[in-house]
Design brief:
This is DNA-3-methyladenine glycosylase II. Keywords: DNA damage, DNA repair, Membrane, Transmembrane, Transmembrane helix. By secondary structure, the chain is mainly alpha-helical. It is 59% helix and 0% strand. The chain is built from eleven helices and no strands. α2 crosses α11 and α9 packs across α11.
Amino acid sequence: MYFQYDESATEYLKQKDKRLAEVIDKIGKIEREVDGDLFSSVIHHIVGQQISTKAQATIWQRIQDNLGAVNADVILSAGVDRLQSFGMTFKKAAYITDFAVKVKSGAFDLQGIWNKSDHEAIAELSKLKGIGVWTAEMILLFCMQRPDVLSYGDLAILRGMRMVYHHRKIDRKLFEKYRRRLSPYCSVASLYFWAVAGGAIPEMKDYAPKKNDRSK
C-alpha cells in the first residue's frame, strides 16, 4: 500500500510554488509505502530509531517471522527479553512492551486517535515512551496518511528544501513560510523533498555551507 494522493494535490503545489513544480514534473508520481496498522506502525518506528534502514528492516523481519501477528497480546506474551533477542536494545523492548500494556488496558486509545486533529494526535503519540514529535509526525504520514505533515525535525526534508529553494539554511521562520505556502498538501511536498534529498535529480545540490567554509 502506498501513500495516496492525486493530481489535485500536485497541481495545487505546482500552482503555489514554481520551483517545486519543476521538481514534481521531473520526478513524477512518487510511490511511498505506508503501514495502515497503527499498533505495528508505532512498534516499527520505535525499532527504527537511531539505526539504519537496513537494520530496522532486519529486526522487523525477525519480529514478524518469530511472532507472526504484531498485536498487544502477542507482544505481551513475548516479553522484553524475547523482543530484545531480535536485535533491539533493552530500552526499545521495554518501550514496546509499555505501549502494548497501554493499548491492552485502554490507557492509549488506538482507535480514538484516528479521529483527533494532527496536533492532538501528535500530542497523544508523543506521550508514549520512545515516541518524540518527529516520530509521531512520521506515524501520521506513513500510517495515518494525514495530508498536511511537514516535519522541521527531519534532516532530509530540510536538506531537500535547501536544494529546491537554494538556501544555505532553513531556520524555523523560513520553514513556516514554506509550510504555510504548501498547506494543505505538505505531506505530498515532503515526499518530493525526501526524493530530492536522496538524489532523485542528480544535478541538484545542497546549498548548506561546507564545514570548512567560514564565510557568513
